[in-house]
Write a structure and sequence with these properties.
Layout lengths: L11 H9 L4 H25 L3 H130 L37 H9 L1
Amino acid sequence: MMPAYTAPPFHTHAFYRELQKTFPHTTARHLMRATRALLVDRIGRVRREAVTHKDLDNQAYLFRAAISELRAEITMSTKNDSAAIRTTTAALRREVDRLDVKMKEDVGTLKHEIQMELDTRKNEARSQIKQQDIAIESLLNKTVVDCSDLRTLVEENKWENMRRTVTTIAVLIITTVLGMELRPKPPPPPPPHAPSMVMPSAGIGLLPRGHMDIGQPRGEGEREQDEWT
């Protein structure tokens, strides 16, 4: 079995002779001793801090064990995470299905409410249109009645004016007739006188009484007869 550590070879006398070729005797000795002391210190540090093959095997074994443990832990964690993810996915799927059902129910309810609202609005619109038609018909009937009343009033006024006019004309005619009937009759005309003879020399001939000159004065009876005529 090989030892854990073997000291490197260092021939001090050979090193000292090589130094004497360049440096003086004292300087070569001091350099050799300093080199030897430095080499001893470095070798001691290496012995204290260096890792042997056995230590490397132990560290490799521990590293492989840690890797295996970490792999097992990662595998277990992955399995647990996968199970948790599957559980969460199933819960989310159930939640989505429940939300889908609820959404369908809400959409159906909303459609029903909208349809009811539309039907209500249609009925209200029909009622309003019917009320407007009734109001228009009532207004038309009232207008027709008012026009009929106005026409009747106009006809009554016309007939009243006509009656008054006819009554006035009748009263006027009756008054005129009564006035003519109640007026005193003129006295009978006097008997005609004998024609008078006029001298031809005077240029006046015998003329009937009816052919008298206009400028000749008339009697009272003749004037009354002319007025009656």
